[in-house]
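Predict the structure of MOSC domain-containing protein.
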Amino acid sequence: MASVVGLFVASAIGQPMQTCTSVRAFAGRGLEGDRYERGEGSYSKLPRVAARHVSLIACEAIEAANRELVQRGLIPFEVNETRRNIVVDGIDVYGLLGKEFRIGAVRLRGSEPTRPCHLPSAVTGKMGFAEAYRDRGGVRAEVLSGGIISIGDLIQTD
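Done. Here is the predicted structure for MOSC domain-containing protein.
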């Protein structure tokens, strides 16, 4: 079964991602204490076609990107250094695009793929993030109902 294996928030652009065991999700906003929940994320001010409340990435994608980095002689990224809010296992996050799903009791809708940028490399001093995570950087989602998301919560599609 697909489940949450990592939860992270950052209070501001460029600040380290803080590890959480659980976090409150607010409908129409995002995760409590996160820069996107407060409208202060790197992409918050850009015109949007889709909601950017939270980001999800599969741990399998992180592992594949890190293998590529190591093959290129570069340093791999830790899970929190990907700057994604929710790390999941056992599901293709791209299959959530345009669909409603639940993490625990919280309802979300996959809104758009992320475009890996330079920020994780800039924050960590590690090179190659945008290239290694291209086509595996995860997705953004809209929070449709509030509640608590915790490590171990199951991901259910309707």
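The radius of gyration is 14 Å.
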